[in-house]
Write a structure and sequence with these properties.
The protein has one domain. Helices cover about 35% and strands about 20% of the residues. The protein has a six-stranded antiparallel barrel with strand order 1-2-3-6-5-4. The N and C termini lie far apart (about 60 Å).
Length: about 220
């Protein structure tokens, strides 16, 4: 009986380790083009809506302003990447996949101190780390090399403020399905920070996306 009780507690703990999926709305890209890379803008739709600056780490999938989807949130600092798109193992932790996410997370964290002129190359590096078929120029490769060295010796807790937003259908092969994103949280909690003020063109995109959202919910 005691063994059954302990097993039940452990099972409950494993289930409680993941929060329920969260609904998001895709707002748009900075500079009106996905090729510009970081940051993209998504909105956490439930409760108090929050617009997050996110880095796309998923070169093979798409997304359009106004599109809504449910996603699981992974704290990279936990080391448990079971619900992420590029975890190639059925186990909670694939060491190789985790290393790739750590490299991508390291680059994302550097955006807090690097000039915006570097962000496009940094995002290209993240795309190429997780998908080697993504194009990568010399500056992009420089960032990849820096990430490989940058993560050496770092504890996994270093990435506690990096969060991964993965569609619930994490391995959907449809290229038009939603991408996976990463963002920097505040103090390790599920709350986003806008690192930049969107450009005027992006503000128009945001307004368009929100209008599209409400148009879907409240048709004439």
């Amino acid at each position: 009986m005691r063994k059954i009780f302990i097993l039940a507690v452990l099972l409950c703990g494993s289930l409680c380790a993941f929060a329920d999926p969260t609904e998001f709305t895709f707002i748009g890209w900075q500079g009106d083009s996905w090729q510009n890379g970081y940051p993209y803008y998504i909105m956490e739709s439930s409760g108090n809506p929050t617009i997050l600056d996110v880095m796309c780490d998923d070169y093979a999938h798409g997304g359009e302003p106004g599109q809504q989807w449910d996603a699981n949130i992974t704290d990279l600092g936990s080391g448990n990447i079971q619900l992420t798109r590029f975890n190639v193992s059925s186990s909670a932790t694939s060491l190789y996949s985790l290393m790739l996410y750590d490299e991508a997370g390291w680059i994302l964290l550097q955006t807090a101190q690097e000039p915006t002129s570097q962000w496009q190359s940094m995002n290209s590096a993240v795309w190429n780390i997780l998908d080697p078929s993504a194009p990568c120029d010399r500056t992009c490769q420089t960032w990849i090399n820096a990430a490989k060295g940058g993560i050496q010796g770092l504890p996994q807790s270093y990435f506690k403020d990096v969060f991964i937003v993965t569609p619930v259908n994490q391995h959907d092969p449809d290229p038009n399905s939603m991408q996976e994103f990463m963002y920097i949280g505040e103090g390790g909690s599920f709350s986003g920070q806008n690192q930049t003020m969107p450009e005027p063109g992006t503000l128009v995109l945001m307004d368009t996306g929100v209008v599209a959202l409400f148009g879907r919910q409240f048709p004439n």
